[in-house]
Amino acid sequence: MKEALQKNRRKNAMVIIILVISVITLGFVCLFVGSSHMSIKECFDALFGKGSAAQVRIIQNIRIPRVLAAIIAGAGLSVAGLIMQTNLNNPMASPATLGVSNAAVFGANLSIIAFAGGFLSTGNNLNSYTVGANPYSTSLMAFIFSTFSIVLILGLCRLRSFRPGVVVLAGVAIGSVWTAATTILQFYATDVGLSAAVIWTFGDLGRATYKTDIIMAIVVVVGLTVFIITSWRLNALLTGDAAAKSMGVNVNTLRFVSMLMASMITAVCVSFLGMIGFVGIICPHVIKKIIGQDHRVSIPASALAGSILLLLADTLSRSMGNGSALPVGAITSMLGAPFFLAIILFRKGDRS
């Protein structure tokens, strides 16, 4: 038994090391890939402030913030998915389960269509949009509505003793309301306002800056710290509510706090980067298959796996864009949908 435990620990340590090395390697690869066709030497020179002004700007002001955003957001969305799956006892749960993304989309659409560009009064004047639009106001509106949606759903669930089934149903219902409201808002939008709102919904790491990276990093780090501190309580939750309560775990409070924190991480990432799907489903599944469900290990491993997936998707998006980067959200869906189907088929094969 002791030997098996030590062997498992060595395996987990090896997995973590491999994931860390993969993140670092892919991070550097991401810096060297893009539509500017810079050589590796030119990228290295620009990294240290040498070369032409354009090359330095591309590396230091565009690619580095983009790589950091991929690492931070990938980690946050992946761990958020893991925590939601544990709390809801639903392997298909993800950051979209509570309608957080739907609320963020509505908030961003409201900001862009009604306020940021002033489309209700300026019509299709593109210059009015470029002058009046404020990306931070759009992100702020998206975050406010996401937070409001989270508090509303969790508040409703507290009234029903916070049962996982109630959370899922409440999330689906509230998410549908936000989607309907977004559709109505877009129906009355002008052409420029509608196109700007639709473009925002694309998951795009290109809009990341050092400021947005810092904000996302603070929220993600705080969230990961809370999850790691409560990892043994989350492990107890896997055994069932009754068993967890017998171990002294306040199940309702644990669910409320962890779901709120996971949703806040999602809200911040989505508000700055747009919709990025499947990260919160794929990565936790892969990690749980490899190292099991012990949250002391699966939380950092899922964070690293999420960073790897988003870095890989960003590299592909810039390689396939033919002069411009494709939305990274589309790439994660292209990678995630077949993988998700494979998970379903694999599970079905196991049961038979």
Query: Given the structure, what is the number of helices?
Result: 16
**Number of E-type strands:** 0
Q: What can be said about the biggest beta sheet?
A: none
Element order: H for helix, E for strand: HHHHHHHHHHHHHHHH
Overall SS class: mainly alpha
Gross morphology: globular
> How big a fraction of the residues is strand?
under 5%
Give the low-pLDDT segments: 117-126, 128-132, 348-352
Please give the share of residues in helix. over 70%
Radius of gyration: 21 Å
Mean pLDDT: 83
Q: What is the terminal-to-terminal distance?
A: 31 Å
Would you mind describing this structure in some detail?
It is a single chain. The chain has 352 residues and is mainly alpha-helical. The protein is built from 16 helices and no strands. It has helices at residues 2-32, 40-47, 53-88, 100-116, 119-122, 126-132, 135-159, 164-187, 191-201, 210-229, 231-237, 241-246, 251-273, 279-291, 295-320, 328-351. Helix 3 crosses helix 14 and helix 14 packs across helix 16 (328-351).
In short:
With 352 residues, the chain is an all-alpha fold. Helices cover 80% and strands 0% of the residues. The chain has helices spanning 2-32, 40-47, 53-88, 100-116, 119-122, 126-132, 135-159, 164-187, 191-201, 210-229, 231-237, 241-246, 251-273, 279-291, 295-320, 328-351.
